[in-house]
Amino acid sequence: MDSQAFREAATATIDEIITYFDTLNTRNVVSSVEPGYLRKLLPSEAPQEGEPWADIQKDVEAKIMPGITHWSHPGFHAFFPCATSYPSILGELYSSALSGACFNWICSPAVTELETIVLDWLAKTLGLPPCFLSTGPTRGGGVIQGSASEAILTAMVAARDKYLRETTVPAASPLTEEEQEREDAIMIKRSRMVALATTRTHSSARKAALILGVRFRAIRVREEDGYALTKDGLAAALAECKAQGLEPFFLAATLGTTDVCSVDDFAGISEALQGWCAPPGGPGEVWVHVDAAYAGAALVCPEVQAATRIGLVGRFHSFDMNMHKWLLVNFDASCFFVRDREWLVQALSVNQAVYGNKASDGGLVTDYREWQIPLGRRFRSLKIWFVLRSYGVKGLQEYIRRSISMGEAFADALKARSDLFEIVTGPSFALTVFRLAAKEEGASLEERNALTRALYAKVNATGKMWLTSTELDGRFAIRLMTAVRTTEKEHIDMAVKTLVEVAEDVMKG
Ligand code: PLP
What we know:
Layout: H1 3-22, H2 37-41, H3 53-64, H4 86-97, H5 109-125, E1 141-145, H6 148-167, H7 177-192, E2 193-198, H8 203-212, E3 215-219, H9 231-243, E4 247-254, H10 266-274, E5 287-291, H11 302-308, E6 318-322, H12 323-326, E7 334-338, H13 341-348, H14 358-362, H15 381-415, E8 421-428, E9 431-436, H16 445-461, E10 468-472, E11 475-481, H17 489-508
Parallel strand pairs: 2-3, 2-4, 4-5, 5-6
Antiparallel strand pairs: 1-7, 6-7, 8-9, 9-11, 10-11
Helix pairs in contact: 4-15, 5-15, 6-8, 6-13, 9-10, 15-17, 16-17
The chain binds pyridoxal-5'-phosphate.
Pyridoxal-5'-phosphate binds next to α6.
GO cellular component, one term: cytoplasm
Keywords: Decarboxylase, Lyase, Pyridoxal phosphate
Family: Belongs to the group II decarboxylase family.
């Protein structure tokens, strides 16, 4: 493809993408293809001769679109959103053109420097305490990771390294007998180290512990506490670990859990950890990582910063939120902040002669390869920069407030039909969790679950919307999220109308 052919192909492609967004509403939300559908439509081998773009482009609509579930569809109320927007798409376009594996500053200084700057912008916009800024008092800073799962794994690696460094004496090599004993002691200590989370924490915390080969314990959170981790809950878990000879080194706290969008009690967590090691924050402290993958986006609004008391996260060690969920940047843009970047560098800096260079050796630059698990990295900050500049903070606030108010309108509509629905949690951060009301007094859990399941299946079968479900203490419940960029009040009204009609039907049946 030469420049002229690219110009024509790109123009045709952009036109098609615009039409896709403008007509999204006419498609079903969820793909209905059978597994293996694509193999039947494509040749078994790559073509020997190159094909014209027009032929390739035609196959996008004909062969790929049937297998696409439309995450930007206004009727997409499942999971959490996976954002996109025109400025973000433009950022991806430039990023592809400027392709590089920008792991060291010298590999493209602009890639590193823009990332540092836009993550500082973001930290300030979210109201994070100054300790998470690259220019802050604790030499903190932000780095873009591929996903919240990658961020929590990275945090846990750094936490494990910090804990071992602080609580054991490093051995020189070759090992003397005494040193060997110490190495053995480290192995024993490792086997006692435990990462804590709650029964509502995202599964990525358990997966990180699994990858690192450390113990994992989920603290039970209760409905009466809004499914949030409390001071007492954490204190009891710490005491239990101590009694069992286990050594907690990491806690995953959440701002906006996946099932119900609960927020752990940051003040309570901080208090429970006060007496854990002396002095507080001294050697052997528990690293607290705040996973705000979805709801962190809402912190662009000062009222959310105040309600969540976000300043308290300055007492913790790391914070992560996905702009690619609710902040109009397309996947992947997980923004991970640490209070002291040295914690990452100490855990993850592994040198190899081929990567040495004058700038790195001078120590004046950031080499992001030392803040992450992979070596290579893309120019992801461009799309963040474009989105922040195109929407402005005010534009982002407006969008978040609109999502939240649609969530409230949805919950109010369900409350107005309390004969049909019971709200289980929310609305919280544009997420409402509900189930069918009891048909008659004394209806069993199984009966209510079966009816709610029937409602869920029938509504999803319309193809016009997609809802996901969860289970809370044995209760099957439906989640409806109103945070997709294209969703408007009219789509919420349509969702309510459909839910009411189907619920009436199910109740009658
Ligand atoms: N944390 C929370 C609270 C989530 O809801 C999710 C996914 O929805 C994740 C982590 C995992 O996100 P990722 O796909 O970026 O790893």
